[in-house]
Amino acid sequence: VQLQASGGGLVQAGGSLRLSCAGSGRTFNSYAVGWFRQAPGKEREFLVVINWSGDSTYYADSVKGRFAISRDKVKNTVSLQMNSLIPEDTAVYYCAADDIFTRFISGGSGIKYWGEGTLVTVSS
């Protein structure tokens, strides 16, 4: 499975961005897919995960109510809609895939597949 994240950029505080994670490989749609971010000088932070079927999600408190994850099994993509962005959301955002849902919630250790990051910068 290969993952490609895109959609990052510069946005003003209060604005929105939509990130996309495109997956290749026949098994992509059988994996849970999640998003993490890492800000300069900080540890990687779990944000959200969606299960393989798309009917179960789990959000970190820091983004609950502002971010929304969804997946399109026809297009093999997982999207992250980010609203009400704040400067503290500035980070490199990564998508990841694994067949164990709880690996995402526990911080990402052991996750099988990672995409290249996409930079999100929120200006004040």
Structure description:
- With about 120 residues, the chain is mostly beta strands.
- The chain is built from 1 helix and 11 strands, in the order E-E-E-E-E-E-E-E-E-H-E-E.
- The strands form 2 sheets. Strands 2, 4, 5, 6, 9, 10 and 11 form a 7-stranded mixed sheet that branches. Strands 1-3-8-7 form a 4-stranded antiparallel sheet, with no helix packed on it.
- A hairpin with a 6-residue loop joins strand 5 (about 45-50) and strand 6 (about 55-60).
- The radius of gyration is 13 Å and the shape is globular.
Show the helix and strand layout.
Layout: E1 2-6, E2 9-12, E3 17-24, E4 32-38, E5 45-50, E6 57-59, E7 67-72, E8 77-82, E9 91-98, H1 102-105, E10 113-114, E11 118-123
Parallel strand pairs: 2-11
Antiparallel strand pairs: 1-3, 3-8, 4-5, 4-9, 5-6, 7-8, 9-10, 9-11
Looking at the structure, what is the overall shape?
globular
**Percent range for helical residues?**
under 10%
**Could you tell me the radius of gyration in angstroms?**
13 Å
Strand content: over 45%
Number of helices: 1
Mean pLDDT: 96
Low-confidence stretches: none
Topology, number of strands = 11
Largest sheet: 7 strands, mixed
State the distance separating the first and last CA atoms: 37 Å
* Order of secondary-structure elements: EEEEEEEEEHEE
Overall structural class, as computed from helix and strand content, comes to: mainly beta
